[in-house]
Structure formats: structure tokens, C-alpha cells
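Deliverable D5.2: sample structural annotation.
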Amino acid sequence: MEIKHFGYYWLDTWVLANVIQLATQDFCIRYLNRTNDPCGRQFDQMTQAARSAPANIAEGNSRHSTSRETEMKLTDVARATLSELANDYLNWLLRQESIPWSVNSPEYLAVSNLRL
């Protein structure tokens, strides 16, 4: 198949969703284990949510020519999935007795200044 059939490869949202997927997989492997996630449910939930976002963006984009409504619904599902994943990260931080970075913290500024 030619690359032109994969127009979503060039979408910033799809690229960023893939970065989030890879980072989430790495995070789960590093920080979730049998001690803090005995049944592996959080690991599964987070990795599946992270995988679902770029998949829904890709599927929505591929439906663009047949149904604009379906494209928008799948894009909204991807957005909602990423919100769910963000909540999982927040939950993990709180269980570690940590708090999210403030928008003025050096860590937050370093990450927010990264460019794709």
C-alpha cells in the first residue's frame, strides 16, 4: 500500500498519541508490578487506553471520505480515552503520595516545551 493511504501518519494528533502510547507502555513496565498492581488491571487498562487513542484517530481518518460524522465520533473517542488515561496517571501519582507538577515547575516547562 502506498503511503498516501495513511494520511493520518502526518497528523500531529496521531503522532502525539503514538508518543503517549510508547511512553505509557514504558511507564507501566517500569512502575507497575505485582506489589502495586497485583492483578495487572491498571497495567492492562493504561496500555489499552494508550493503544486505543492512535487506533481511533487512524480509523476515524480512514472513514473521512465515507462519513464525516463517524470520523468525528472516533476522534472524540480518542480524546475521551486520553482523558481516561490522564486520570489513571493522576491516580497513580496520588497513590505515590505525589502531586502533579504545577504549570510553573521546571519539569512541566521542560516537557511542555518539547516539539515533535
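Annotation notes: The radius of gyration is 16 Å. The mean pLDDT is 89.
The annotation will be released with the project's public dataset once the embargo ends.
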